[in-house]
Amino acid sequence: MHRSIDCFSKEYSEARDKFLMASQSVDGTLTAYKNTIPDLELELVTHVLYLGAKQASNLLVLISATHGVEGYCGSAAQIDFLQHLPKIDSDTAVLIIHALNPYGFAFDRRVNEDNIDLNRNFVDFTDTPKNSDYQQLMSFLALSGLDEQGLLATQHSLKHYRLDWGDTRFEQAVCGGQYSDAHGLFYGGNKASWSHQLALQLINEFHISERQKVIVVDIHSGLGPYGYGEIISDHQPDSSGAKWARQCFAHNMTEPAAGTSSSVPKHGLMDYLWHQHFPVQGCYVTLEFGTFSVDKMFAILQQENYCWHNPVSTAQKQSIQKQLRGYFYPEYQDWQEMVLFRCQQIITMSLKKLAHE
Ligand SMILES: [Zn+2]
Description:
The chain is globular and about 60 Å long. α4 crosses α6 (167-175), α5 (148-165) crosses α6 (167-175) and α10 (294-309) runs antiparallel to α11. Helices cover 42% and strands 17% of the residues. It has two domains: 5-124 and 187-291 and 329-356, Aminopeptidase; 132-175 and 295-325, no CATH class. It is of the alpha/beta class. Strands 1-2-4-3-5-8-6-7 form an eight-stranded mixed sheet. Bound molecules: zinc ion (ZN). Zinc ion binds next to β5.
């Protein structure tokens, strides 16, 4: 394969424009969903492109920027797909959701306009999950400043907990989702966010439950080995969704619930909403591209979160934001090529499965 990495962008607005341009070169229906935020002039839009017959039995869904800044890889993969559109079976349609969390993408944050981690936001808000381990770590996760000494001290304490609790319990505590600390990390929110509501609207508008076969691929970055795209299924291991996902992706697929993934089981994933609307042959997988180490990610997120909730200099904020972006989006040709190659593989496998079995 030789694919150009020109489909990658430097910022949200460039990604959006490239996506619009690529959309014009194909025969599809494009819809814009605007996220209007008071006092913010920036135009934040999720674009949705539908390719294929309205009543097609089978559907492939490609999602980017659930976690804002992680949108660089997903957006590029979507644009690359449109630029090299393969022949698609007449009874299969493709739904492309570009920049589901446009605010996070535009500001290089993982979270949305309300500090909500969209991928922890799909819970029953009358009875939100408890994460008591997070409470224990709260004083170490919330920094009191940006000095290196303080950061090293909290790292030291967190490392102690990681050793004591083991990797899985520790990571679940930090990033499994919490619903008590609105200014904290991996906060799932106290209401359905704009992007949450949009996801539900799209599920209805595009008749997900009426299809015969559905595959959703939600493209993320930040976990696992550098450049590798891990297919993660968060279906219940014995469910029909897990079986269908395994039929589609075989040994490629990992499962947090079975301990085989670089991701741990989490609260409030967007997967859980889609699961409720799937036909028997319906699955949702996260295509997660590795970058650097998890501890590095936590340290950067702690500092970035501090900057958003405390008075800091513009230079400090920009410096941290740059580090965060560099963590989730390594702007290197090798990483970018691996993303495109892997996405093409997964899309090809998915389309084949939808068309023939
Ligand atoms: Zn993510």
